[in-house]
Amino acid sequence: MWIAAAIALSLVAAVCFAGAAAHQHRAVGHHVERTEQTRHLDLRHFWALVRTPRWLLGVGLGGLGALLHINALRLAPVAVVQPVGVVAVPLSVLLTARRTRTRPPRLVWSGVAATVLGVFGFVLLTAREARSEVPALEGILLVSAVVAVACVVLVLAARSAPRRWPTLLWATAGACAFGLASAYVKALFLLLGARTPLTAPAVWVTAAVMLLAYVLGAWMVQHGYLAGSPEVVVGALTVTDPVVAVLIGLFLLGEGGFGPLTVLAMLGCAALAVGGVVALSSHHPEAGQHRPPLDTPVHPPQRSAP
To answer: Basic and acidic residues composition bias: which ranges (predicted)?
Structure first.
């Protein structure tokens, strides 16, 4: 019963995340000029976005999705909850199709079907056998360090990558941070459920890293919206985020113990979902449309009337 409730909350959260991506991408594209000098967002850009209703609506939807996602993690293991977020990928593509009034081709619908089937197959397999254990402080510190190094490497690569790569690299870095944060939400629930004192290092370190990961993840994702399409950002988020969270769940929270046949079936479902995301990323409604080069402003400055 609790597993079903967690999956339902995760599905609603995925809808919120897809809507948040659409609104934030449009706000960044309309209020930040994509020039060679503005490849990276600074405080001036964020101040402009904070005063934009569309961007704030996206933030609100993202916050609601995060709240639902946290409650889902309270009810079920990370390996069950996290993969459901991949549903945001087809939702994002369909929202873009509606906004641009284009009809998605057959390959897009095939990608939607493959993604959904792969994710739900993975969820059904993990829901039967996944269990969670209370994490140790040493494991928390080690996992935090590994993910931090991965994020730094991806950000440095994004800042110097050719034009086609920054979107994917920024979004992947943000996904690593969000995956860490989701796993640590579950870790925090486990620690508190085991009546660990609030002053214990394992509790406050987990809470601090979780909050920092959410903030830095959001910052990196905004750079992804600046660099490219929302489908690529959502695709990178909803594939990398579950992988990172599930790996942390296996290593830190002891959510392993799957039999050989279950592992093979999980790998098959994961491959199907990844294949669906690849199809969506390659054939989404905006894939063939012209995009302004990075050295051309999206919105040229308006000339005042004489």
So the answer is: 284-293
